[in-house]
Specification:
Structural class of chain B: mainly alpha
Largest sheet of chain A: 6 strands, mixed
Helix content of chain B: over 70%
Number of strands of chain A: 10
Number of domains of chain B: 1
Pfam family, one (chain B): BPD_transp_1
Order of helices and strands of chain B: EEHHHHHHHHHHH
Transmembrane segments (chain B): 32-50, 91-110, 122-144, 150-169, 190-208, 247-268
CATH architecture of chain B: Orthogonal Bundle
CATH topology of chain B: MetI-like fold
Order of helices and strands of chain A: EEEHEEEHHHEHEHEEH
Oligomer: heterodimer
Protein name (chain B): Taurine ABC transporter permease
Bound molecules: adenosine-5'-diphosphate, magnesium ion
Subcellular location (chain B): Cell membrane
Shape of chain B: flat
Radius of gyration of chain A: 19 Å
Helix content of chain A: 25-40%
Main location (chain B): membrane
Chain lengths: 289, 281
């Protein structure tokens, strides 16, 4: 099995490293988080002592067995969940709740079914006063739809669209305000394999253009390698960081000439991740006994 | 069911979807109406035939023709209309009061644990208590007449509305509320833009139940509450006078009234939440 160092030297394309003077955009410091059960007076620890930095412009993927706390981690950054210990910071200040600098793409799309595609995307701009001027909104919607390839579907309702198209609307809604941070919780988990690959390629293109910082949860190892600059492997019960892996593959990765998926390096990273996660699955089974 | 024939050559729209015009047989459009009319016609003819055979005592089972005559004469000589209008007005006012109280309280109970905890026992007690049990108390407090009849309608309709609205709020998908929070909606905006539209079909279902229960309440009030008004009074009087045709005519009126109200709500429902209907289909 190919071995990959936990902290690999920076890749050729992105000259970011731990010594970089720029402070981290997102920073988790010894974060522990859990869910209270008031009836039984217990607290389930979902994540324990997680420390992690996400650099500006980085694409970070999080993988791990289901129930290991991936969603909890992204919800900490989004501001839905508060840590019981430690702190989560964005641009150096403690996360107090959701903010205009962070947008989320949900696994179940979370579109408002009574709104058209256009009005769903507008939803991201209409709540915060003065956030995006009214006069600019129509242009923004058009641009976001173009970015995700849904021009012409402005007046459609979500139930008239396929799963892949709905998630494109979800992505357009998250992109339309041009937030600095994009949080994606298994965004392609519910779309079919073909659509999934097309959407991964699109996402890579979009992010190359917008230069957003992305935290991306997936349970697909290949997806993580294809999209991410770094992959965080979380282990289960309680969720802790098992390993952080640099993905030093050249971009764009969905270029047909590059054929990244058949490169030896891709294979190495892949088999390393597989072995890590196979351990996890075994460990979880034993723990369950 | 619609019968379709070959579509016209496809027209491609800007979004790349192919739209064709379809032709629906002219008969199909009127079929529903035709079947209903035929169905009712057969029903009344059978009624007439069975009644003429006098298998059942005509005192309990009048001829359909006599029933229609009673209906016609009742409208002509002004015995029916004042009572019908009294019942209808009372009912609609009662329903409106129930909606104005029931919807916000129900939404509040769905959204706030504390409100739910405080109000739940009373709401559930009142929802399950048979309405008739309240009549003596209401007569004691308000005497016979309109106020008492209106009160019983409201007490009948308001709780199903409340309970449905509460249940509706609890079904709102958590991820939609999170989406609201992520995209900057404050609490009032989340209520207005997420929770309320999502709950609308439940509100309508609640009002539908409110209509059914409210009609029962209306009749109880008119039958037992005296006051000499309304369709209930008409029923009571016809019964006392062994006027079977009038009795049946009033029942038909009641049936038409409730079916009409339920149909109106259906129409409203389709307009309020087309997304739900299509999602279900
Ligand atoms: N709202 C909640 N209430 C109670 N427990 C929760 C809640 N959300 C998640 N959990 C629990 O916390 C753990 C981590 O969940 P989650 O972060 O959703 O994992 P993942 O996204 O990796 O599948 C799981 O054991 C899950 O059952
Ligand atoms: Mg999850």
């Amino acid at each position: 099995m190919g071995h990959v160092e936990a902290h690999h030297a920076p890749g050729a394309l992105r000259a970011v490293s731990d010594e970089s003077p720029e402070p981290a955009l997102i920073e988790a410091l010894h974060v522990t988080a859990g869910y209270e059960n008031r009836r039984e007076l217990t607290r389930l620890i979902a994540l324990r002592d997680v420390s992690l930095q996400v650099r500006r412009g980085e694409f970070l993927a999080i993988v791990g067995p289901s129930g290991c706390g991936k969603t909890t981690f992204i919800n900490l950054i989004a501001g839905f969940v508060k840590p019981t210990e430690g702190s989560v910071r964005v641009r150096g200040s403690e996360v107090a709740g959701p903010g205009a600098d962070r947008a989320m793409v949900f696994q179940d799309y979370a579109l408002l079914p009574w709104r058209t595609v256009e009005r769903n995307i507008r939803f991201a701009m209409e709540n915060r006063r003065g956030h995006v001027p009214k006069s600019a909104q129509a242009g923004r919607v058009a641009r976001a739809l173009e970015l995700v390839g849904l021009t012409g579907f402005e007046k459609s309702y979500p139930h008239e669209l396929s799963g892949g198209m709905r998630q494109r609307v979800g992505i357009a809604r998250a992109l339309v305000t041009e937030p600095e941070i994009l949080l994606m919780d298994e965004p392609f988990g519910a779309v079919d394999a073909m659509t999934r690959e097309a959407m991964q390629a699109e996402l890579e293109k979009i992010i190359a253009e917008t230069r957003q910082t992305v935290v991306f949860i997936t349970h697909s190892i290949d997806e993580a390698i294809l999209l991410a600059d770094r992959i965080v492997v979380i282990s289960k019960r309680p969720g802790t960081i098992r390993e952080v892996i640099d993905v030093d593959l050249p971009r764009p990765r969905f270029d047909e000439q590059a054929d990244v998926q058949r490169s030896p390096r891709f294979g190495e990273i892949r088999s390393h991740l597989w072995s890590l996660l196979a351990d996890e699955a075994l460990g979880a089974k034993q723990a369950a006994r | 069911m619609t019968e379709t024939t070959q579509g016209t050559p496809g027209i491609e729209r800007a979004d790349g979807r192919q739209i064709e015009t379809i032709h629906v047989s002219r008969f199909a459009r009127f079929r529903t109406i035709a079947i209903t009319v035929l169905n009712l016609g057969v029903f009344f003819v059978l009624w007439e035939v069975v009644a003429r055979a006098e298998v059942i005592n005509p005192l309990f089972f009048p001829k359909a023709g006599d029933m229609f005559a009673a209906l016609f004469n009742g409208f002509a000589d002004g015995t029916i209309w004042p009572q019908l209008s009294h019942s209808l007005t009372n009912f609609l006012i009662g329903l409106a009061i129930s909606a104005v109280i029931g919807i916000p309280v129900g939404l509040l109970m769905g959204a706030s644990k504390v409100a739910d905890l405080i109000l739940s026992p009373y709401v559930w007690a009142m929802t399950s208590l048979p309405r008739v049990a309240l009549i003596p108390l209401l007569i004691l407090i308000m005497g016979f007449g309109n106020a008492m009849q209106l009160t019983i309608i409201v007490l009948s309709a308001v709780f199903p509305i409340m309970v449905n609205c509460m249940a509706g709020v609890k079904t709102v998908e958590p991820s939609l509320i999170r989406a609201g929070e992520v995209f900057g909606a404050n609490r009032p905006q989340i209520y207005l833009k997420v929770i309320l539209p999502y709950t609308l079909p439940f509100v309508i279902a609640g009002v539908n139940q409110g209509i059914a229960r409210g009609l029962v309440g209306m009749l109880i009030g008119e039958l037992l509450g005296g006051g000499g008004n309304g369709l209930g009074y008409l029923l009571d009087k016809a019964g006392e006078q062994f006027d079977a045709p009038m009795l049946y005519a009033t029942l038909i009126l009641l049936a038409v009234m409730s079916v009409g109200l339920v149909q109106a709500m259906r129409w409203l429902e389709q307009r309020a939440a087309p997304w739900r209907d299509i999602a279900r289909a």
